[in-house]
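Human: If only I could read backbone structure tokens as easily as an amino acid sequence. Underneath my words sits a plain record pairing an amino acid chain with its backbone structure tokens. Take your time, and here it is.
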Amino acid sequence: MEGLPPRSSDTEPTVSQSEALPSGYSTREPGINFAEAVADNGYLWWYVDAISDDGRQAITMIIFVGSVFSPYYARARRKAVTAAENHCAFNTILYGPGGKKRWSMTERGSARLKRRADSYALGPSRIDWDGESFLARVNERCTPFAQRMQGTIRITPSTLTAHSLQLDEDARHHWNPIAPIARVDVDLPSLGTAWSGDGYLDSNRGTEPLADGFSGWDWTRARLSNGDCAVRYEARHGARKPHRLALRFKKDGSIASEETRDAAALPRTGIWRVHRRMPGAEARPTRLQTLEDTPFYARSLIKTEFGGETGTGIHESLSMERFEQRWVQTLLPFRMPRRT
């Protein structure tokens, strides 16, 4: 793609030599290829989050080819090998002051999907790369009151990285921190919402269902007081040893490993009692505000220490063991309608 922001280097990404990067580290083309091939039964998603500059609002946006949390995709896979493109979603969730939340998580089939290297369109919503930023145009009905969610979310990376990290021993699941440091501008006039804040953009891809590779994970990304981005990952694979990552990114896209530590238990969520763990915990969080409390997933705002620096960011806990329970999947269509 032309007009990319500066890479971390003219040749290879800058890597700190203070500690070797984890096994399974590799590089790929920087940025996003929205037309990337996706294996049957597999998945590809792009994830964006941001916290407003005043700390009172947040947003997450997840764009799927092969929606890993779709009860429809799970049901189809139980019957036969299934094309990921027939289970796509353009999910947008807003978290406002006082716990006010609005979300749009409609799934659509391949007939409503158009993908090119620099654009992804699903039904009435789309995202495009314009040479400097990613511009998402959202046009959906949102819950809980079927309001129109219409407007734009612009993601402007400080740089686009080429980092790719393996999340499992069999190299079937990979994570790409595309733009760990970004600015995000939210403008949704239909909801009276407009703000800017620090954001983050990454991608995950896999050649098999997520539940085949993981029993669950905990993940955190935080913007540090010195401007860096810290990421902590603990992916669990049943009886296997957890796969842990402790990484730091600078605005130029350079990456460095930090000491990996055992995860520390955090309080469970209030409604669904989801287990939360802080990967690589160094101190007790001074803020833990639950944004999302579902039967198998929790998202929270967190403030704690990373490599000696204070950071504020997003924390998530995922239980694929819970997601695989049929009673959980029976509940999900109320939050995730499907429109073919």
In short: The chain has one domain: 25-339.
